[in-house]
Amino acid sequence: MTAALPNLKNYLQSKAGITEEQFEALTQNLKTATIEKGGILLQQGEICHHSFFVEQGLLRSYTIDDSGKEHIIQFATENWIISDRSSIFFNEPSDFFIDAVEPTTFVYLDQQFIHKASEISAAFRIFNEKALQNHIRHLQKRINLLLAATAEQRYLDFIKLYPDVTLRVPQWMIASYLGITPESLSRVRKELAKRNFKPY
Q1: 3-class SS at 77?
Q2: Is residue 99 part of a domain?
Q3: Are 55 and 11 in contact (CB under 8 A)?
Q4: Would you say residue 153 lies in a domain?
Q5: 80 has a pLDDT exceeding 90
Q6: Cα(104)–Cα(160) distance, rounded to whole angstroms?
Q7: What is the pTM of this model?
Q8: Is 157 within a domain?
Q9: Per-residue model confidence (pLDDT) at position 2
Q10: Hey, is 199 helix, strand or coil?
């Protein structure tokens, strides 16, 4: 398992203080999978039982409104974790879809994994608490940007948060995440280009 999951190993060792021995114990029963572009991991209305660690590829979570329009909530590239925390914790139907933007290899992380990691590593417990608080902080910032920031400010924040996503997804997906139209995004990019701004 260790050789097959270099990104997960590095993630847990560098960020959560997991030792080599602990990693071997934790990953013995982990399940991995590969999904093709467009494949769906979570359907709206289903209960989400796992978080998904992206070993290689790109996932996204999104909702679809009554008119059929998609609203992208999050992207997850290599070394990111994506899920519906509310559905997992409260055992309620999810409001989101999660699918693959690219062919993606991912690891299923369930609550048993989190509990086991917390039991064997005090460093992981601290990391997991910090990760949860950081997730809340990110959501608060995202709400504030959508309510109060200009399209340019949202786009600049997107580039900072997802520096490698800009070249990997179509522009309409970025516009959907930003809550603006593709035309507005095009105008923002042109204006930034005039000021010699290089987004990547």
Answers
A1: coil
A2: yes
A3: no
A4: no
A5: yes
A6: 23
A7: 0.91
A8: no
A9: 44
A10: coil
